[in-house]
């Protein structure tokens, strides 16, 4: 941890926040996948008309798009966290020589 308590608390808070956001986003991602699985299972079990199959396929495509959007949001969340971590690490490295200089004074 950093010698600056504020920076350390922010890092822990950010990691905790990321974990919570990832957990929520993963949960949201499983929902359309579960719906998709159910749609496909029903389509295989029941004899349907061509129109009913077409409706099932259309709904399945909507759920695939929803899942894809969720994965995109996960990617964005992770990328933002990585950028913030890199920025924080760069800031910490940038202050390191100042700390060493202050220790020698």
* Gyration radius, in Å: 24 Å
Q: What is the number of E strands?
A: 0
Integer count of domains? 1
Average residue-wise pLDDT: 78
Q: Sheet with the most strands?
A: none
Per DSSP, the total helix count is: 2
Sequence of secondary-structure elements: HH
Overall 3D shape: elongated
How far do the termini sit from each other? Answer: 23 Å
Strand content: under 5%
- Classify the helix fraction into a percent range: over 70%
Poorly predicted regions: 1-10, 96-105
The helix-and-strand class reads mainly alpha
List descriptors.
single chain, 0% strand, 105 residues, mainly alpha
What would your notes on this structure say?
By secondary structure, the protein is mainly alpha-helical. The protein has one domain. It has helices spanning 5-45, 50-104. Helix 1 packs antiparallel against helix 2 (50-104). The chain is elongated.
Ordered list of secondary-structure elements with their pairings:
Blueprint: H1 5-45, H2 50-104
Helix pairs in contact: 1-2
What can be said about this structure in brief?
The chain has 105 residues and is mainly alpha-helical.
